[in-house]
Amino acid sequence: MAPSRHNPSKDTPDVLGLILAAGHSRRFGGDKRLAALDGQTLLAATTARLAPHVSSVVVMLRHGEHARAFGLPAGTHTLQAPSSPIGMGTSLAAAVSALLVSSEPHHQQCKALALMLGDMPGVRAETLQALAGRARHDNIVRPYHQGRAGHPVIFGRAFWPALAELQGDEGARALLRRYPSRVVVFDVNDPGILTDVDTLDDLSSLQ
């Protein structure tokens, strides 16, 4: 199946990208977000990969952090996670809660949210384009490669209030189980949707 054409414009908000980057890289042995990849940080590389396929990007950082420390482009919109230790679900809920009350026009008008992890720069451009093209206000688009689910997952705006209520470490899996009839499974020939960077060996495989 040929990928759907999707040419987002910064002036016509459509799908918003949310990159979660508030974790602590315990297996990596340092702050993997700052690891060098192709002349930029790992987080900047992930952001640059997603940005052309969404109307705008929001990056969630740890409390007290700023975009410039990670080499993110000037003007990158960031959110800060709560200062107390939190799990993936709580972090995602905090980000979506902020987006629901945001006064930014892009945040108010977009119909869906592409949820990406900050250590996944290997997702192919054509995959991101095709996923964004399938986004709707009332569906959830989930990519699969060889039977395994990956990222980004795109949540229609109808599901944002439920995302804002998540707690703990589970992330959005509970939401996927709650609304199985609204999940659009999209098979892709792209191992990048499964490839995150947890160790130095993982990083080396991308270089």
TrEMBL record:
Residues 17-179 form the MobA-like NTP transferase domain. Keywords: Magnesium, Oxidoreductase. Its EC number is 1.1.1.328. CDD domains: GT_2_like_f (cd04182). Pfam families: NTP_transf_3. One of its GO terms (molecular function) is oxidoreductase activity. This is Nicotine blue oxidoreductase. It comes from Kushneria phyllosphaerae. The gene is nboR.
